[in-house]
Amino acid sequence: MKIINEMKLEFMGVPENEGFARVAVSAFAVQLDPTLDVLADIKTAVSEAVTNAIVHGYADAPRGIVTVAAALRDDGVLSLEITDKGKGIADIDRAMQPFFTTQPEKERSGMGFSVMQTFMDKVTVESTLGEGTTVRMQKRLREG
Amino acid sequence: MEFERRRDTVTVRITGELDHCSAQPIRRELDGLIADPGVKKLVMDLQDMAFMDSSGIGVILGRYRALALRGGKVAVKNMNPQVKKVFLLSGMDQVIQIM
């Protein structure tokens, strides 16, 4: 399996960039000619990961940098890495439970990771307190 | 956001995208529409809503909770496939009618 194209975005972690990130990744992924449903899945998962970085990662230090790296592989798979250098996640297993949220007063649904897991083929999370979080996701766009 | 009131029902057409960025202004507008205690039902017409992520779940459930306190309810209609997938994943169809 070989990488046939890749890109990297760095942007300020402000809510206005959530839409930018999902549209940019969708435009990148379209090279492999995925269906509209698959593109919608990718946009939704990217939106969740970037929102988490802004809302949780940089909760105590707004406007930190969010990085989105994407790669297209010759086996038809899109792989994504969304990284923040924010506060990190204390308990990843708990954070990934449906409806778990640290911000119920802000009407956060706690469904972000559930959406990512449902809409993508593979989701893994790596996080270190005080250093940040990386969410890695994969989605098959077409048969390789 | 266009809306129409008939007796105790407000129907509102939400346009654009519902994510964390747009959630706060949309929430504020919806709360304004249901502020009158005479409103018992909020119908959200999502025909022109192109995208929703889990932030939308919070917005819809929050309005449901507010109306349920006065015996009211929330319904949605005209969801596109992406919005419906997020909606169903959250289990909101247990408490919110799909028209």
Provide a brief overview of the structure.
The complex is a heterodimer of chains A (144) and B (99). Chain A contains 4 helices and 5 strands, in the order βααββααββ.
What is the share of helical residues of chain A?
Answer: 25-40%
User: Going across the major beta sheet of chain B, what is the strand order?
Assistant: 1-2-4-6-7
Kindly report the CATH topology of chain A: Heat Shock Protein 90
Distance between the termini of chain A: 9 Å
Please tell me about this protein's structure.
The complex is a heterodimer of chains A (144) and B (99). Chain A is α+β, with helices and mostly antiparallel strands. Helices cover 33% and strands 30% of the residues of chain A. In chain A, helix 1 (16-29) runs antiparallel to helix 2 and helix 2 runs antiparallel to helix 4 (112-119). The radius of gyration of chain A is 15 Å and the shape is globular. The N and C termini of chain A lie close together (9 Å). Chain B has 99 residues and is of the alpha/beta class. Chain B has a single domain (2-98), classed as Transcription Regulator spoIIAA (2-Layer Sandwich), CATH 3.30.750. In chain B, helix 3 links the parallel strand 6 and strand 7 (97-98). Chain B is globular and about 35 Å long. The two termini of chain B are 19 Å apart. Chain A binds chain B through residues 15-16, 18-19, 22, 37, 40-41, 43-44, 47-48, 51, 54-55, 106-109, 111-112, 114-115, 118-119, and chain B through 17, 19-21, 23, 27, 51, 53-55, 57-59, 61-62, 81-82, 85-86, 89-90.
